Structures are given as C-alpha cells and as structure tokens.
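Customer escalation, tier 2.

The customer says the design service returned an amino acid string that "doesn't look like it belongs to this structure." They asked us to rerun it and document both sides in this ticket. The original structure tokens are below, unchanged.
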C-alpha cells in the first residue's frame, strides 16, 4: 500500500501547483492531470486541511502551496491523503499489536519493522523540492 493512487495524485498536484503563478482550481488541475475531478477534490481538501495547501474561494479561487517546497515532505503528504502513515506490509507496528497473535514466533517481523523504518525516514526526508530538482 506504500504509494496509492491518492498519494500519486497528491504528489502530481503539488508538482503542478509549485509551478503555477496563481491558485489553480480543481477543474483545471483535473484536466491537466487527467484525474477524476471528484477524487482530486477530496485529495486537495485533505492537503488544505493538513496546512500543505491554501484554499481560496470565489471566481479566482483554487489551491496554492501554503509551504515552501523544501518544507513539504512526502511522508506527510502520503499520510495526509491516505488517512494513515503509508505501510509497506500488512504487519503490526509492534509485536504486541500483531493481528495474528503469532508475534513471538514471527521471524520476519524484525526485518519488516526495520524496512518500514527506513522507508518512513526516506519519505520524511524526501521533499517536494527534491522531486522538482529531478
């Protein structure tokens, strides 16, 4: 579940908005990105609620970055639009929370936990500015 369509669309929208000189409305963004307007509108509202975007109402309204691209990390973006932190595996964050109650005999959990930590750190350190530089 690491990067779903919602996360992908959020990142694509942020890239487009970072290049815009004025706020862009969801109609324009959905056309530019060939994304469903209703799905994109939910994503944009989530980003605005998380203080990543500014939302402007009215005729010249739309969305614009609220933060500098260097301050927008991909872990926050993905967590915001997914409603939870992105997870690589359907595994519990701790041995005590194991849904199968087999944590004490699970030999792969330490590896998965370590891998998830590395991915979280990578996404936390990857900013919108980094994506714009590529």
């Amino acid at each position: 579940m690491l990067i779903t369509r919602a996360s992908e669309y959020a990142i694509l929208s942020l890239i487009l908005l970072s290049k815009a000189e004025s706020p862009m409305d969801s109609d324009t963004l959905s056309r530019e990105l060939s994304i469903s307007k209703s799905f994109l509108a939910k994503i944009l509202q989530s980003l605005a609620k998380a203080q990543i975007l500014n939302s402007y109402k009215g005729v010249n309204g739309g969305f614009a970055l609220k933060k500098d691209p260097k301050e927008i990390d991909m872990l926050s973006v993905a967590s915001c639009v997914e409603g939870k932190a992105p997870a690589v595996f359907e595994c519990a964050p701790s041995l005590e929370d194991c849904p199968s109650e087999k944590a004490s005999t699970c030999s792969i959990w330490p590896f998965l936990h370590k891998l998830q930590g590395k991915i979280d750190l990578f996404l936390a350190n990857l900013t919108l500015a980094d994506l714009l530089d590529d």
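Tier 2 assessment: The sequence is consistent with the input. The mean pLDDT is 90. The longest strand covers residues 53-56. Sent an explanation to the customer and offered a walkthrough call.
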